[in-house]
Amino acid sequence: MAKVVVIGAGMMGTACSSHLIRTGHQVNLWGTELDGDIIDLLRQRGIHKTLHVSVPPGIKFFQADELEKAMDKRKIVIMAVASYAIGKIAKKVVPFLKEGVFIINVAKGIPPSPYLTLCDLIESLIPSSLSKKVRVIGMGGPARASELVRKISTEVIFGAKDERTAEYCSRITRSPKFKTSATSDVTGVELCAAMKNAYAIFIGMCHGLSEKLKISMDNTKAALMGQAILEMSRIIIPYGGKLETVMGQAGVGDLYVTIQGGRNGSFGKLLGQGMDVKEAMEKMKDQTVEGYIATRGMYRLAKDLEEKSIISIKDDLPLFNELYSVLYEGKSPAKAIEDYFNKV
């Protein structure tokens, strides 16, 4: 049994808390300044207002001004806030870290330059006196919060520079309904987690367009998924990631579940139905579309590779090139899909 604190009371943070309390751990759930109403309802009725589910008994809930109390004697810290907030929240957490703590990042995104992954960003904030005594781990794979919290069979992979660290996290979180594995490819795990959100937007656009035109486009969506995996590998491998990570739960598995539902696919669907980016964002104003942010980060990584003559964005990442054109240059989804398929 481990003493755990989950940072962030959104859907994923609450789902992780529910799973870990059922697995026999002591769990504190801390909410950010944005989670006040969520924590209040959890304390009063044990119900999460977005997941619409009762959480298992035993979880202790903490408001934003109770971080020190929530962190007390915790060995496992799970970062479950939106990717854009990881740096800000990690800075608040760092003063309460002790020797021997494991930080597990479950957020999915690409940090600002010069960092490659969110784990890199978190590591950069840890004081030098603790840098070799606090371990940072990434979690990837198809783990939709609404299913995890309801004990639907789920599989994830933990990545850490030292595979023994990842194996420890895998072992203590595993259950009959939660299959886990471990790898030393933390770069691959983290980049897959971010990039699949971006590509899910494009495939969501195809879904929205098919509904708008009232035609089936399953062939198209399947082709786009295959190309997305290929392009992910073309970015990830030059940065040190492994092909097997892209082809496993972190890449193929997570992309599939993200396409099937979730915010990124829904955002893409709105674009495919005819909304522009601003309108679609307004429609989803209470939800974070991680893939939109990740696309900008991916462009930075791809551009760095292009400048080193490792890839050509236009030739090696044609699907990503079209996605970027839609999200940041105003191209229509229909034209982007047409141009992708007409490219020789």
UniProtKB/TrEMBL annotation:
It comes from Aerophobetes bacterium. One of its GO terms (biological process) is carbohydrate metabolic process. It is an enzyme of class 1 (oxidoreductase). The lineage of its organism: Bacteria, Candidatus Aerophobota. This is Glycerol-3-phosphate dehydrogenase. GO terms for molecular function: glycerol-3-phosphate dehydrogenase [NAD(P)+] activity; NAD binding. GO terms for cellular component: cytosol. NAD(+) binds at G8, A9, G10, M11, M12, G13, A145, R263. Residues 3-165 form the Glycerol-3-phosphate dehydrogenase NAD-dependent N-terminal domain. Substrate binds at K108, R263, N264. Its EC number is 1.1.1.94. The keyword Cytoplasm does not apply. Gene3D superfamilies: N-(1-d-carboxylethyl)-l-norvaline Dehydrogenase, domain 2, NAD(P)-binding Rossmann-like Domain.
